[in-house]
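Hello,

Our lab assistant flagged a job as stuck in the queue for most of the afternoon. It eventually completed. Since we weren't sure the result was trustworthy after the delay, we are filing this so someone can double-check. Below is the sequence as submitted and the structure that was eventually returned. Let us know if re-running is recommended.
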Amino acid sequence: DVYKRQDLGWVSGLEGPEDALLVDDQEAYVVDAQRGSWVPLRSWDSPYGADDRELERVVAVLEAAALRSCP
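-- returned structure --
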């Protein structure tokens, strides 16, 4: 179902979907044409281990992307 997809085209204030990143743990919800904007997140499976560092990894990816976009 297309309405269950995480379409960056619905985000207001963007010139285009390539101007945003999508963090999601479900690849099936990412619009095919926007896979380049997708930051995959490891699935959230309970119980969460004490060594789970997925949030730190994704934050580092987002920080690096933000630095690349700065003039």
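-- support follow-up --
The delay was a queue issue, not a problem with the job. The result is valid. The mean pLDDT is 89. The beta strands are 22-24, 38-40.
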